[in-house]
Structure prediction request, 228 residues.
Amino acid sequence: MSDAFAATRFAADTLAAYQRWAPFYPPVAHNPLMRAEEKAMLEWWPATEGRRVLDLACGTGRYTKVLAAGQPAELVAVDFCEPMLAQVSGARRVRASMMHLPFDRDAFDIVICGLAIGHATDVGAWMNEVARVLAPGGTVLYSDFHPAAARAGLPRSFKDERNVVTVVPHRGYELEMQWEAVAAAGLAIESVREIRAGIELTETFAGSPEFYVHWHGLPLVLVVRASK
Prediction:
């Protein structure tokens, strides 16, 4: 199987999963892990008033709402899944692949991307595209499922209305690959934070006592802020 074919198949399978998930995907942090991720993202949230802002891989718009409240000069929400994007409000909506953004160079002062870079077919190309549309002095803030969690065998999945589990395709890009991609794109890391089981993530849920004992200290989510 060629790399190009594998990338096309990965993107198609990812889109199919999100199209199936869209009717059940609320525009809020709807589980303990997402709430812990959101708390960490908001601690490093850039000031958006009067800025040009891109919510990249916006899903149903949970971060779009936060960004809109910050009174940006321009707010654009991008996603490749039409049923997800259709639920977004408060921004100009654009359906596009995050690997090929339909915007000019230096179009935005801030790029936000929540839990999505593992859907990129190539992390280096993704980072270059983010850097291309980010203006000098701009900020990118992104999160993703930690590669250590992927190595441990913890998938990203959801249950539909029939209780059928679907695993969402996801690539666990190792930290070294991400740091190399950041540097190659001409960006500079400002802050890095890991959300670890039983440490930053402590909210109770069904089966949480056993989960926290078994996975204590395992990094589950990565949050990164970088600048251009």
Remarks:
- The chain is about 35% helix and 25% strand.
